[in-house]
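Quick review question:
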């Protein structure tokens, strides 16, 4: 019995679990990783089944279960197959900011098709010289009557190349604004130029791209500005408040994947005439993992609940889970590999891949240090 999870959420959890055990396949993941290709067909399926929409509001085609809904769905995706679960959720996490701040027309145009699995989203905030220090960004937008002219470059944009829309943060005079760069604009590619370069292979989540976006006198109509002009940084941070909770859910689900696989292995694997789970060092490590999992579960659900209830503690808990759960998942998955011995190091066991995939959760949408800075400001 979990106080945060009602019967509806339990049913959703079971439905996602059943879907994942039927449709998510490790060999398919490895093939897509090797080909550096996004699981678009699966993204479409989870959209059709309503699994993307679980946390979005009903007025835009979602089911209205808020952050807790997102957390339950993403946790189950990643619990089944971390690399795939992360890739699928990364198709819509960048769209949170458009959902929160978009006009009714923009939400209809971008968020509804995303919830239906037809559109993939991206957010372009980071630049070569501006990562944690977002305020120092250099990409500029100049007012030219009915449009903006954009110059600058972005790096590390997840889904660059196949995303259907990008939320782009740029400097508007001395403040920041967000503009939506959509497929229509990309295909027209002018006046001016817009270029996307894939930054290539990385440690994990290799079914997704991390791209560089280059804008040279690229024209964007004013109607593509998101929310209030000059409030871009605030909007990004508000999107991250939810995004960080959902990223913690990626790490949490992946931790469950590693733990459950390892308990099963330790029961079956025999050395010195007995299952290795009987060795006290292994058994104690598994108990430590269980305790960590229960701590993380309670923190995560509480963070989502606070967010859904508009509680003033929500911002603090969003940073808290983004700090605590990825760091914990990295430790747990690293230890699971030891418990499987040499087999843990092999690709087909899935654990080394899971560790590489979740490694990014302590970096994107604010590194652990940045979460500590935020927390120290709030706590002290
Ligand atoms: C796979 C991947 C996907 C990504 N997806 C996206 C995306 O979709 N959109 C996007 O815009 N960005 C994305 N990013 C970028 C990511 O958010 C940044 O990499 C991250 O915010 C850190 O910025 P940085 O890499 O420039 O590191 P830096 O900011 O240069 O930080 C380097 C080190 O210094 C530390 N540091 C920096 N400032 C402080 C401080 N004030 N106090 C203490 N320590 C500090 C950091 O913690 C870190 O350890 C992605 C990155 C990767 C690798």
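Suggested answer, residue by residue:
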């Amino acid at each position: 019995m979990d106080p945060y999870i009602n019967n509806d959420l339990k049913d959703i959890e079971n439905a996602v679990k059943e879907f994942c055990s039927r449709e998510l396949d490790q060999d398919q993941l490895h093939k897509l990783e090797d080909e550096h290709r996004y699981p678009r067909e699966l993204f479409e399926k989870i959209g059709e089944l309503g699994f993307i929409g679980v946390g979005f509001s009903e007025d835009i085609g979602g089911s209205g279960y808020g952050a807790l809904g997102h957390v339950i769905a993403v946790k189950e995706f990643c619990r089944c197959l971390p690399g795939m679960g992360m890739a699928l959720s990364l198709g819509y996490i960048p769209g949170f900011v458009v959902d929160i701040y978009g006009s009714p027309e923009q939400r209809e145009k971008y968020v509804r098709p995303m919830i239906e699995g037809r559109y993939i989203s991206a957010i372009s905030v980071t630049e070569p010289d501006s990562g944690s220090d977002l305020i120092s960004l250099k990409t500029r937008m100049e007012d030219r009557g009915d449009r903006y002219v954009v110059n600058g470059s972005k790096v590390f944009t997840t889904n660059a190349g196949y995303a259907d829309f990008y939320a782009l943060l740029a400097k508007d005079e001395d403040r920041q604004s967000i503009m939506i760069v959509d497929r229509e604009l990309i295909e027209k590619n002018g006046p001016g130029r817009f270029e996307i370069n894939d930054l290539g292979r990385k440690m994990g989540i290799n079914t997704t791209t991390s791209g560089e976006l280059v804008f040279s006198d690229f024209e964007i109509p004013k109607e593509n500005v998101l929310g209030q002009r000059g409030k871009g940084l605030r909007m990004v941070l508000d999107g991250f408040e939810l995004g960080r909770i959902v990223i913690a859910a990626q790490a949490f689900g992946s931790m469950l994947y590693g733990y459950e696989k390892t308990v099963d292995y330790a029961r079956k694997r025999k050395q010195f005439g007995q299952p290795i789970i009987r060795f006290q060092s292994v058994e104690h490590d598994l108990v430590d993992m269980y305790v960590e999992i229960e701590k993380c579960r309670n923190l995560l659900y509480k963070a989502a609940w606070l967010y859904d209830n508009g509680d003033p503690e929500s911002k603090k808990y969003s940073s808290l889970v983004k700090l605590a759960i990825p760091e914990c998942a990295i430790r747990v998955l690293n230890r699971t590999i030891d418990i499987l011995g040499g087999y843990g190091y092999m690709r087909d066991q899935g654990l080394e891949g899971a560790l590489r995939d979740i490694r990014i959760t302590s970096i994107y949408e604010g590194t652990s240090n940045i979460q500590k800075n935020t927390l120290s400001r709030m706590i002290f």
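Why it works: The chain has three domains: 7-115, 121-230, 233-379. The pocket of flavin-adenine dinucleotide is lined by residues 94, 123-126, 131-132, 156-158, 202, 210, 360, 363-367, 369-370, 373 (CB under 6 Å).
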